[in-house]
Amino acid sequence: AAMDYAGLAGLVATKLELYRGDPGGWRSCRRTDEVTVSWRPSDEFAGKIYRGDGLMPASPADVWEHVKPVAGGLRVEWDENVKDFEVMEMITENISICRTTTPSVFRKIISPREFVDVVVTKQYEDGTMLSAATHVEHALCPPQANFVRGLNYPCGSFCIPVPGESNKTQVLTFFQTDLGGYLPQTVVESFFPATIAGFYSNLKKAVETFKS
After folding, report:
1. 191-212 burial string, b = 16+ CB within 10 Å, else e?
2. Alpha carbon of 188 to those of 49, 144, 156: distances in Å?
3. Torsion-angle region of residue 182: left (phi > 0), alpha (psi -120 to 50) or beta?
4. Using CA atoms, how far apart are residues 3 and 123, in angstroms rounded to an integer?
5. What domains does the chain contain, in order, with CATH numbers?
6. Which residues belong to any copy of the START domain (predicted)?
7. Using one digit for the tens of pLDDT, what is the confidence trace for 78-137?
C-alpha cells in the first residue's frame, strides 16, 4: 500500500504547532548564551522530547536559508551533526522524503546514523517558517550496513519573526529522536542537550558571517 506521505506531513505540522503552543511540563536542562534547552517525556516513544529556544542575530529569511531542508542547502555546511542530506523524492512542492546521515560522535561512542523522514515546510501569516519531519519507510532507502537506522519522531524548527526587530529571529526547535542501536541511557541523556547547544552556536556563527 502506498504511504500517505501528504497526510502524515499534515499530522507532523499539527503536532509541532501543538508542541509550540503547549508551555506546560518542560524542565530546563541546559542554558548557553544562544539557547535554553528543556525536555519532557515524549508521547511518541519511550524517550524524551527536547525543546531549544533562542534568538539569532539575523532576519528570518537569512535564518531560514540555513535551516530549510533542500538539496544542496546550507545545513550540511554549518551543522556538524549532518554529514549528508539527500532529497529522495518530492511529494509536493513543500513535502519531500529525505535521507540524513550523521557522523560518528561522542568520541565515536555513537556510530554513524541514518534517518529517513517525510519533511514538510510551512509558512504562516505572521512570516513564521516551519520545517518539520517524522520517520518513514521508503523504497529508495533500504537500511545500509554501515549505518544504524535512527528514528525521528515529530521534530522540527520554527523561525519566528521578532516584532519590531527585523534583524532578529526566534528559533524554536523540537528534537525527538530514537538513536537506535545499543547506547547507554547516560550517553543519550548527555548527547541531546549538548547537540542542541551546538546546533544553536553553529547556526549563530553561520548566520553572522552570511550575507544574503
Report:
1. bbbebbbbbbebbbebbeeeee
2. 12, 22, 19
3. beta
4. 24
5. 5-210 (3.30.530.20)
6. 16-212
7. 999 999 999 999 999 999 999 999 999 888 889 999 999 999 999 999 999 999 999 999
